[in-house]
Amino acid sequence: AYPEVPSSDLLLAELIGRGGMGVVLKGRWLGVDVAVKMVGAGSAMARFLEREAVVLSRLRHPCITPLFGIAHLPGSLALVLELMQRSLRHYLHLRAASASFTDEAWLRCRIAREAAAGLAYLHREHYMHRDVKAENVMLDATLHAKVCDFGLGVRCSSLEEYADAAEGPLSETHTSGVGTPRYMAPEVAAVERHPSRRVIYSESCDVYSFGLLLWELTHHGRAFGDVPGSTVAAEYAPAGVRPPLELPAGFDVWKRLISACWQQQPALRPSMKRCVVTLCLAGKGLNDKAGCGAAGRVVATEEQKRVKEL
After folding, report:
1. Between helices 186-193 and 204-219, what is the axis angle to 10°?
2. What is the pTM of this model?
3. Superfamily of 7-82 according to CATH
């Protein structure tokens, strides 16, 4: 069961976001700034909001946006969540003209590692996200990352339920079927072409999407940005076509990780836990290159300890 937030305790302010499943407003809950994600009560999206509440109520991790409770407002159902500064997509858009990947390599490595840690924990708890993308990684005021938006989250043991969602209202929204088409793994994209098929797939589909997220972190653009997402899902992903990797010398570990994550065969992709380990080591290397010396090694050692806790 998820906690209830009395509507009388909640004050709504300005609109701060809009997506396929509803709107997000800034709010105040007992004097604290919060994010309020709202859909119409009794609408087709309400059951996905309730699913998100169930999933989030079972998760506790520093790299997952926490749920404070669910509120029943006049005509609306709402999740009350931690208020974050901006999405990773927004951040990359802001930085596109002023900073290259190499200028911010250590920071972007930390963002990637924290997003990976949130997904690794999610997978350890036997859930999968199914809509991993830059819009669903939020950054706080100090640019630490947390994974958000679990409306398509599902336990790995009940993946067949996606077939009902694919034929229902979600097929008309931004997150068509089981995710955003541009970032769908090939095995999930096949489901979109044949929505009536019951195809079992694993959490490795999140790893594939994470590979595209890493590409966007390192290349300052949207993957296949000039191609419709539906074309990417229906033609590019199943054919093994991927965005070109154009990283400077010295970043081979990133190239290897991205290439491993978006492997065509799910069994060949690394686990999210392995991605965390790789990004920790990459971060240590960036610390050393920057001359951080002993301090950088201390940071890397602390990150290694976090990995063991996964």
Report:
1. 110
2. 0.84
3. Phosphorylase Kinase; domain 1 (3.30.200.20)
